Amino acid sequence: MWAWADICRAPTVLVVKDQVLAQWVGGNNSAPWNLGSDSAIAAYKVAVDEVVAEFSTGVYSVEVPNWNKTTMICSDICHPNDRGVDAYAAAVENVLASLSWRTGQNTL
Asked: Residues 21, 63: contact at Cβ < 8 Å?
């Protein structure tokens, strides 16, 4: 039988900041890639943090440290390559590992 506290317990939610937006400042002049800028990327990341801050517990933002758009993007200049996917996975794992244990909530 489930206890009410178990049913009401919020899960752990990670909101991963999309590093691929960094490509929008690249040399591709076709839409939508030509619409980005460093300031747009910075505003996006602030907006993610503001949304995450609205939750009192269990919601965290994840940003890939040391993202390199030269070495972590596929040739389609849109999707992360294997190195980029590994960087995303490591960032998620690091955030989960830093959290306090919550029974049934911190599982991959």
From this structure: no
Q: pLDDT tens digits for 6-18?
A: 545 667 888 988 7
- Nearest Cα to Cα of residue 85 among 97, 72, 95: 72
Rounded Cα distance between 25 and 60, Å, is: 26
Task: Name the amino acid, one letter, at 7.
Answer: I
Tokens, residue 37: 């800028």
The contacts of residue 56 (CB under 8 Å, 6+ apart) are: none
Give which of 87, 93, 90 is closest to 106, Cα–Cα: 93
pTM value is 0.71
